[in-house]
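Late entry, evening session. Most of the bench is empty. Finally got around to the prediction I had been postponing all week. Sequence below, unchanged from the version circulated by S.P.
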Amino acid sequence: MASPAVRRYLALLAGERGFSPRTIDSYRIDLASLASLAADGEAADAERRWDALRQQELRRWVAASARAGLSARTIARRLSAWRGFFDWLASCGVVKANPVRGLRAPRPPRRLPKALAPDLAVRLVQPQPQADAGDDAFAQARDDAIAELFYSSGLRLSELVSLDVRHFAGPPASIGWIDLDECEATVRGKGGRTRTVPVGSDARAALARWLALRAEWRTLHPNGDERALFLGARGARISHRTVQLRLKRRALLRGIPANVHPHVLRHSFASHLLQSSGDLRAVQELLGHASISTTQIYTALDFQRLAAVYDAAHPRARRRDR
């Protein structure tokens, strides 16, 4: 069971900072490991030992976790959660200093996001032949609109699933919605940041087909969710898992030799847009990245593409393989 301080901090993250339930669950797990260190294995002592934790103890934990095989990304995420928690404890007067300040996780190996080639991305999102009626037509029109919207607007999975058919004032108020008249979608991304992204013409056409079928379907199923843009087979807002499975199935049926998941289309959107425009700042805004450094990884993807062209075409490059 979480200590009182941890519970209050998690409530702050959820209420005032607007963190998603999944993010809160991650913080809860990370702070539970910190509480174990603070209590030396005895949960009853945790509240009395926050100010007794020293940087050396945490440094030993980092070294031991790395030796045990915990990934650098997981260690970095955990230290980030601990750092924020101790900053809050300091602001409340519980501790005098933050022992996590100055601690760094091992450097993770650089992993580039995986993007589809433009021709494969187009093959994946192209509308499939429409069934005449029934559940097949419902699912096909919905899946077409989902694939087009992912690639058109670079949305995260959570952003797409949370979209409403229009803005609802509430309660609760919409956190994401589409406006086809304005050719845009408004979403709430990481950190509770809201942004508006354009919706391309092919995505608008697919959404229009889906919305027409959705309206017909709801007349036969009036208990379905009236707000959610994308519905599951039973009329509730579509789940994250359903979107993942349907997209993977779509890729397999179209012979795309890649592990396709929603973030692959987000990466493809960013990479293809950057290749065409070269405008890194615009791509940052469209993706909703807080820092330009997060977006800069797509410049490495673009360089890889240019390097592949060089290796395939330049006489000196070809000689290396002889």
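Two things to note before I forget:
The mean pLDDT is 85.
The first strand starts at residue 177 and ends at 179.
Will write this up properly tomorrow.
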